[in-house]
Write a structure and sequence with these properties.
The chain is mainly beta and 591 residues long. It starts with 10 loop residues before the first strand and ends with a helix. Helices cover 8% and strands 37% of the residues. Strands 1-2-35-34-33-32 form a six-stranded antiparallel sheet. Strands 4, 5, 6, 7 and 8 form a five-stranded antiparallel sheet that branches. Strand 4 (59-62) and strand 5 (67-72) form a beta hairpin.
Length: 591
């Protein structure tokens, strides 16, 4: 199906940046006025001036001091921003950052990068990887002024950390990635840190490691991807992100490369189960995708025996009706491990990416293989070479693409409750037809990412406003934040999309030169690129008394604060009805 530009949308200009708001996924009915519509709007930005080097990745917030902490991996610093006035976030004058390169962490540890931060009850915790990624990492503890209080050893490559709701524990997802030659492959794990009133009194004895060794010796679901060279299950599983139950007794851990979620019992400190997430069927109309960057337009297609591997990055949880529901941003990821031999030759130890056009298709299951494998059709779509030959005869019977181009809702047993299908691509195609599936490091890059994970949803956070719960999802490539009302997890609906990016700005290598950095003026002009970490700040904790959303943008090095205005309860009911009417209209048009 090809998207035309004739559909009606509602928009208005804020300076050079475009704002669009729809009460249903694609149809503006005209009934949702500015007075009662959900409204997500940027109000202030802090700019590091660092381009495409992780100048801003993850944020956390101290409501008492009204300080926003932002990781800057480029400088190995944690920026400390005063957001008393969120329209003008600025570095705290007395102590504008924490410089990890100046900390005395012992001779046995060299800082490699800051992967995650979290703040609770006066304590800032930071997950820091070793310069040698396969060595144990650290969790560093600071007060709100940035004074180092303690340092504890955790697993290899601590990628994310979070406090439990009661603040008594910190959970750390240790990804445990292998070396380039795959000869050193540490086990993935979760470190459980039992906290005390006196953080300085903590020792490594307060750290318990939950590993996956139990699963080395038992049968697991064969849909869980275990494919590292000579890797055990415990080595191959790579924890990415963590969500914790409301009562703090259980946690769910995404295993992105493995396409699974692990269940962690926080009472025993042990993993109890692994859930395979299964695959998305791209033969279904609601999942149709644009698979090509060489088709000259926006073209949604389906294909029998083509599947998406959900591979969620971030995960969040929410209790509804006494049950926990899990929310995932289905980014997708692939493994690529290389090393140089003594002669300087690059050797592949594991590279799983290939494309539809480069594999041999089963002639019975893909009788029109020549047409399918054209570059303007599915030929350039990136798939894994680790799956698909179901009968072992050397050709591909099924094709598996990376990511789901969506967000999903799962119950606590791993059953799929909802998936947004192809709504992200359809919404961005409708609202930004000239910039559909653009990349995040250059404007004038229309359709560039269609062959590789599309809009690439990565970050997700939940926020409660006026008895409603909303999911905010960051689209890493085209950019922008998309919001859904998920109050009823069985019936979520789209409410808004804002992209704080100026696509009209000339911003690419032709402008600032190949292998050159853009100027500060060029960065200011283009706006936000590559949203990574999203943080919801509730009205009760906000400096304005109104809810805020903080977004760290990895490519542009910017941190932007959004105001979030929602309809009053009576208007919200009307909006939900309007959204349902719009969705029904769309469904009828497909029939």
């Amino acid at each position: 199906m090809k998207i035309s530009n004739s559909s009606q949308t509602c928009s208005h200009s804020i300076g050079k940046l475009l704002k669009f708001s729809l009460p249903s996924a694609l149809i503006w009915t005209g009934l949702a006025t500015a007075a009662n519509a959900f409204d997500l709007r940027p109000i202030g930005t802090y700019q590091t001036g660092i381009f495409d080097d992780s100048g801003a990745r993850i944020t956390t917030y101290d409501p008492l001091s009204q300080r926003l902490f932002v990781t800057n991996d480029s400088t190995q610093r944690i920026e400390i921003l005063d957001i008393f006035d969120p329209t003008n976030p600025y570095p705290v004058a007395a102590n504008p950052f924490i410089d990890l390169t100046t900390l005395d962490l012992g001779l046995d540890f060299e800082v490699g990068g800051i992967n995650s931060i979290a703040f609770k009850d006066g304590i800032l915790a930071a997950a820091v990887e070793s310069k040698t990624l396969q060595d144990p990492g650290r969790v560093l503890f600071f007060d709100s002024n940035g004074t180092l209080l303690n340092s504890l050893t955790v697993g290899a490559l601590p990628d994310m950390l979070t406090f439990t709701p009661d603040g008594r524990k910190i959970l750390v997802a240790n990804e445990g990635e292998p070396s380039g030659d795959y000869l050193n492959d540490p086990e993935g794990s979760v470190s459980i840190i039992e906290l005390a009133a006196d953080i300085a009194s903590l020792t490594d004895a307060n750290v318990k490691t939950a590993d996956f060794q139990l699963f080395n010796n038992i049968a697991i679901d064969d849909r869980i991807r275990i494919f590292g060279p000579n890797a055990t299950v415990a080595q191959d599983l790579e924890p990415e992100s963590i969500a914790v139950s409301e009562d703090g007794t259980k946690a769910w851990v995404t295993l992105q490369e493995n396409n699974a979620i692990a269940v962690l019992d926080l009472l025993t400190g042990e993993f109890t189960d692994l859930f395979a997430l299964g695959f998305k069927d791209y033969s279904q109309p609601q999942n149709a995708l644009d698979p090509s960057d060489r088709d000259g337009g926006i073209n949604f297609r389906t294909l029998q025996n083509l599947f998406g591997i959900y591979q969620p990055d971030e995960i969040a949880s929410y209790t509804f009706g006494g049950q926990t529901f899990l929310f995932t941003a289905n980014e997708g990821d692939s493994r690529e491990y290389l090393f140089e031999d003594e002669a300087g030759n690059e050797i592949e130890s594991l590279v799983e990416e290939t494309s539809v056009g480069d594999v041999l298709l089963d002639p019975d299951l893909f009788p029109n293989a020549a047409e399918i494998q054209q570059n303007s059709n599915f030929g350039r779509l990136e798939i894994t070479n680790t799956m698909g030959d179901t009968d072992g005869d050397g050709d591909y019977d099924e094709l598996y693409a990376f990511g789901g181009r969506s967000f999903s809702i799962w119950d606590e047993l791993g059953n799929l409750i909802f998936d947004s299908g192809n709504e992200f691509e359809r919404i961005t195609a409708e609202l930004f037809p000239d910039y559909f599936n653009s990349n995040n490091d250059a404007n004038q890059s229309f359709d560039n990412r269609s062959d590789n994970k599309g809009p690439e949803p990565e970050g997700i956070t939940l926020g409660r406003i006026l008895e409603k719960t909303y999911a905010f999802i960051g689209l890493e490539r085209i950019g922008g934040i998309i919001a859904y009302d998920v109050t009823d997890p069985y019936n979520p609906f789209f409410v808004d999309y804002f992209n704080n990016r100026n696509f009209a700005a000339l911003f690419n290598e032709d402008v600032f030169g190949e292998d050159e950095e853009p100027s500060r003026e060029q960065l200011d002009a283009v706006g936000d690129l590559g949203p990574e970490g999203l943080l919801f700040i509730a009205a009760a904790d906000s400096p304005t008394g109104r809810p805020l959303l903080a977004v760290a943008n990895e490519v542009s090095g910017t941190t932007t604060l959004y105001s979030v205005r929602v309809p009053e309860p009576s208007s919200a009911i009307a909006l939900a009805g309007v959204g349902a009417l719009g969705w029904l209209s769309r469904k009828r048009k497909r029939a």
